[in-house]
Amino acid sequence: MDQQVQPQASSRLANLSAHLKAPSSDMSESYNIPPQETAPRKFNHLNGSTDEILARFCVSELCLAWPVYRDASEWRNYRESFADDAVVFTTWAGGMQIDDFVDTSIRGRANGDFIMHRVNGVLVDLNLERGRAIGKMKATITQRFTLDGIQCDVDCDNRFIFFCQKYPDGWKIRWHKLFYEKDKLIPVDGKTVPHFPQEELDKYPEGYKYLGAAQAKLGHQVLTDLPNGNNEGFFKMYEAMEDWLMGKEVDLFWEGKPQ
Q1: pLDDT, position 16
Q2: What is the Cα–Cα distance from 245 to 126, expressed in whole angstroms?
Q3: How many CB atoms lie within 10 A of CB 113?
Q4: Which one of 164, 166, 213, 231 counts the least CB within 10 Å of its CB?
């Protein structure tokens, strides 16, 4: 059976949540992750049976395929972590089928896109009975740019979310989308960075302002409505994550599929 929050903890969280309101539209002035509990339904995520531990380990390997294989252009190994109908979202990929995403990534690297990832940790929520899992990978996207003749890095702290499913031949990723939490511009020489007009930064939400503006300068069509730390997409993601773990089908194209 699906595991629930322990009664005592559930009651305590309910009492706390009663004193907390959902983020208001002016939270940009105090941008942060919401203080209220975001995942009240409990799934297996620590300890458990041997089968549960092994399943979580398999899913965590899928998560790590993104930085380990993609950063090194090990495209065949990277592709094996995804189901055939998997869909991938990034700032510049508005819900691409996995094979299209790989092809686009290869072309981007050939054209000079230099994107790496630093992994901070991975944990997994699991519903083994339903063959569903959510992989949560804390990581930093670090992309090198040369803009106006100036080299700089943009570091963007994220939570990579992998919607995973058990197939006859093992676990695979079905959906991939991120929470973009905060970013910053870093001078490579320790002192010089390119100028970004405020109106360019304002096109993108908190969480990936500099990453979005810098990628746009390279000619990418950057999405402007991806989940960050407290926008509407943040809460939609958590709803989708719970639905997925409960065995429901989800659709992460909240604004419609790209034409």
Answers
A1: 42
A2: 7
A3: 17
A4: 166
